[in-house]
Structures
1.
Amino acid sequence: AQKVTQAQTEISVVEKEDVTLDCVYETRDTTYYLFWYKQPPSGELVFLIRRNSFDEQNEISGRYSWNFQKSTSSFNFTITASQVVDSAVYFCALSEPWEGGADGLTFGKGTHLIIQP
Amino acid sequence: DAGVIQSPRHEVTEMGQEVTLRCKPISGHDYLFWYRQTMMRGLELLIYFNNNVPIDDSGMPEDRFSAKMPNASFSTLKIQPSEPRDSAVYFCASSLGPPSNTEAFFGQGTRLTVV
């Protein structure tokens, strides 16, 4: 079985603050993939990042950064100097390509991020 | 490429009616997925296809749900008969390879309301 937990249902910060979205996952496999997607108010899901379980290097892309720690089964997402346009629901997801069932994505419940001007 | 195209964007139907959701994946993508999003259950995988063949439909909630992919550029998700609890946003996604290896692109979704 696999599970993704995003304990923060909603976060509200003032523009320019840094904010971290937490993601904790459960899996019995040694090979797996982790993802973050953004769902803006318009509704579509936008891919942000994919990491495999063998690559624990943190990644930075502009104001976005991701901290992958296998020891704590976490894949947290930080937005630095947040902007109003970052307001969205952010989903963490897990895929186990060799799981006997679906080779799709198991999503967390999402964190609704509100950036106030 | 226009991305994954879903139609209709919104659908309101009466309980008991048949409803068909449509999806056009990105050209050249071998994988197609149908997801459902509700407040209670979040995003759930319903079924996925590889090269037009259904691979895993274990996420399909009931026999009332069926999905087809007659060719590489078109897929449908049908609910017959529809029930109010089917109300949700249904997303179609496609990818070049399995999502574990490649980015999955999502359509804008179809918001289904069954009254």
2.
Amino acid sequence: DSGVTQTPKHLITATGQRVTLRCSPRSGDLSVYWYQQSLDQGLQFLIQYYNGEERAKGNILERFSAQQFPDLHSELNLSSLELGDSALYFCASSVDQDPSYNEQFFGPGTRLTVL
Amino acid sequence: AQSVTQLGSHVSVSEGALVLLRCNYSSSVPPYLFWYVQYPNQGLQLLLKYTTGATLVKGINGFEAEFKKSETSFHLTKPSAHMSDAAEYFCAVSGAGSYQLTFGKGTKLSVIP
């Protein structure tokens, strides 16, 4: 158990819908990262927050957004869903903002299926 | 820009045999290199990492990797495979001041009894 929790574990929805994925980082970790894992694209970095502020953006679509709240939990919002958004979404957390020096601890993921 | 290439999407070894998973990277800055393991239906777990210093890095579960700058490689090895090593392995790279990890496509390791 990494100490990072993600809810829900599974999500099945229809095209055009909007969903919210939730992540609680390990106690004491200030940085949260979101990754998408799909068969064709592999593991891709989406976005990072550090202590409530956006720090880095990767291959995140405009239909996707995220935020980190004062209690440090984070939510990833996916809207106007398409079939291609079906994937495993991971949240990771670390103590500091630079992953070069700090291990990223990964949650178990949320499997999103868009029908 | 950084990138990672993992040679072989699927590797099979016999139990007790050497495990060798290949990773080559591209980075415009001195790289920091990582190997992660993903067991079925679980998140990723860090096996080992190279940031600076000794180029031979030892990790958990008997794995080690060697950073070879001249070959831009960071191959993962284990002298003797165990059934419990069956999983998917990801090589990743980041650089100084980079907030994100760039992952390879992954290599699925099967261990044959």
3.
Amino acid sequence: AQSVAQPEDQVNVAEGNPLTVKCTYSVSGNPYLFWYVQYPNRGLQFLLKYITGDNLVKGSYGFEAEFNKSQTSFHLKKPSALVSDSALYFCAVRDSGRAAGNKLTFGGGTRVLVKP
Amino acid sequence: DGGITQSPKYLFRKEGQNVTLSCEQNLNHDAMYWYRQDPGQGLRLIYYSQIVNDFQKGDIAEGYSVSREKKESFPLTVTSAQKNPTAFYLCASSRGLAGVNTGELFFGEGSRLTVL
């Protein structure tokens, strides 16, 4: 079975400060990891993914995430947050094995509030 | 422009009525999915289809039904057997089949169902 945990329901940060959204995962094999963002009453937008290779992945809108296999983590980061980054962020995982199909398991989401 | 179209955006239903949510994609994707989103619970998989005329139950399929008669279309019916149908429903698609696709999902804008 695969699972994702986002331990923080909400993260508050001042504009211009660094932003971190935490994610830990559990899979039986090697993980494929994803971050999505959701604005109110909208669908999810893809931010970035880790499949293989460099542990530091860069994505859209200045976001990046670091894959840490020993800590089974994939935290999302942005060096300088903007008010427009305020949204709901989801981490997702999929086991790389063929038996897993293409089913993603999502975390519960973390609401980010960036204050001016 | 390519994308996923969900309709209607808002829907109200009386108890005991079935309702069908539409999902159409013009991305030429093989796989399509339906997720349910409730506050604080993230996204939960209802049904998914990796190829035309085939679909599988997800984690919360009870009270729902789907069909996949065309590659472009994956409608979801919320039946009267679904005891708590009020939620935000998201349709998604992805390229390829298991083992070929690395899992990036493209989402529609969602349909909000309210049972009166």
4.
Amino acid sequence: NAGVTQTPKFRILKIGQSMTLQCTQDMNHNYMYWYRQDPGMGLKLIYYSVGAGITDKGEVPNGYNVSRSTTEDFPLRLELAAPSQTSVYFCACSPLSGGSNTGELFFGEGSRLTVL
Amino acid sequence: GDSVTQMEGPVTLSEEAFLTINCTYTATGYPSLFWYVQYPGEGLQLLLKATKADDKGSNKGFEATYRKETTSFHLEKGSVQVSDSAVYFCALSVSNYKLTFGKGTLLTVNP
């Protein structure tokens, strides 16, 4: 059981380039999230999705886009990379229980992105 | 808005020492509270949780009690091991599907 799989694990981008961080989960969870982790700053929510076809902004959505065409996949798109987007990105998913989100997130191993 | 404040690190302890990592929160509603742990090079994983006042979450020798009167959820362990070295995050959820995380506390346990 793979859980949450993120690719790539590492990437270096030049300013202005675009890329997509891939996230796939095989847990059949409804909720999916993208967080960024900066040193000493904890995790900030970028975007989240409560189900296929539904996405919404988190705390720090500027410069990013997402889509959720299937339950399994939740890619994060960076259109014009900037140095401020240098960070570690985590994808996570969360199940429903009794019609409510449990609050327990299952995380991928992270994608370290450097923008130079 | 909702927020979590946890003790600044890093925390360095010797093996078998007692651990406390303080966590306090501010929430507009009635939150569920969580502790997550991140081992080096890995994603976060849930350590324990509590969903109502006076609940005690526990796992792997770690404990935390939901204290509504002091808006706190301090993490404790009676005897830490080298393998407990990690970053610990306190978190809360009010909206039922979004978590707000603290900044994390790095714990290093020396043999």
